[in-house]
Amino acid sequence: MARKDERRKAGVGGRKSSAKPGAERRAGVAKRAAPKTGAKSAAKLAASPPPPPTPKVKFRGRLLEHEPLARYTTYRLGGPARYFLMPADVEDVAKGIEFANERRLPWLAIGLGSNLLVKESGFPGLVIRVGKGLDRFEMKGAIAIVGAGMPTPILARRTAEGGFAGVERFIGIPGTVGGGVYMNAGAHGAEFAEVVTEVSVMDGKGKIRQLARKQISFKYRASNLGDVVVLETKLLLLEEAPAKLKELQGKLLRWRKAGTPFDQPCAGSVFKNPGGAKTAGSLIDECGLKGYAIGGAQVSTMHANYFVNTGTATPSDVLRLIEHVRKTVQKKTGVEFELEVKVIG
Ligand SMILES: Cc1cc2nc3c(=O)[nH]c(=O)nc-3n(C[C@H](O)[C@H](O)[C@H](O)COP(=O)(O)OP(=O)(O)OC[C@H]3O[C@@H](n4cnc5c(N)ncnc54)[C@H](O)[C@@H]3O)c2cc1C
After folding, report:
1. Catalytic residue among 114, 200, 223, 269
2. Residue 79 Ramachandran class (φ > 0 left, ψ -120 to 50 alpha, else beta)
3. Which segments of the chain belong to CATH 3.30.43.10?
4. Would residue 340 show up in a list of annotated catalytic residues for this protein?
5. 269 an active-site residue?
6. ipTM of model
7. For a Cys staple, 224 with which of 28, 103, 217, 345, CB 3.0–4.6 Å?
8. Each residue of 298-319: pLDDT tens digit?
């Protein structure tokens, strides 16, 4: 999902920088080593127009150019992002949005890339990867205040160890809390929608907004949060014995281990469960598609709704496999699948 903003100026000008002076000097646009060139290509380079000026915006985190997104997706697939920002704090996120707006570029927030399929073309604008620096965790009574960059399994473990239930079943969801809230991720009958009381987001003008639960509409693996960066959330939990939660998490992890192709890159469930008695996985399995492959992409032999990268897959292979499975299931069972994985590019 690309966020576009045609305005020339973003609403973040005049913010005071909290960046430490030393950090400012260290950060900014990371430069790649110049490729070695022969005499011919050197002459060609001399004749070609000068490259566009390096963006002058300073970030406390890192801004990379032409960064391959394959490095940041669990599929290990995807072309480059024109710009790729790893913000160190909320102010960096605001500067990133301003940076994109000023260049009339689309922007996109991502977490751990565990629900993404990025095409070969990559992303033409700014990808904001929410992670470290935005991963605060604090308990105030039974309320967990959690930064969007915190990995969901860590949240599940820390709250369980602290004697709080509500997110313990998310122990095996390999994304960030921001991605989990945005997607309304869930597992084993629980989902983020049940525990979220408030979400702090940054909008396309760089403005922070606090959204109360009643302002947000969650659906199965979806929310109406729209074109925002999720920064933080408050979750209402319930007291529970840590030993009981630990035992449950152990069971759930063993169950996952038995049914997940952890040794092969994938992005979890490709399709949403269609809502009837049968899961997407069982419908795909019934159509005889387990193990079916196109190029290097394969329907997992362990879990039919997980499509894996066997090592040589391209994003196009995965997309072709998705289309083949979707059409076959539709033809054989009449069920129309909806994608759970987000396709970028
Ligand atoms: C092995 C495996 C098992 C999985 N099991 C489950 C499961 O049991 N249940 C489940 O629900 N999912 C599961 N998933 C899918 C995935 O882990 C979840 O959807 C997860 O919540 C995505 O989080 P992420 O940080 O990786 O988001 P990403 O994949 O990076 O992004 C997903 C979407 O969220 C948006 N987004 C991410 N972060 C932000 C942010 N801070 N602000 C605004 N938008 C944001 C992105 O733009 C994108 O649209 C599984 C995936 C794998 C690989």
Report:
1. 269
2. beta
3. 21-31+41-129
4. yes
5. yes
6. 0.99
7. 217
8. 999 999 999 999 999 999 999 9
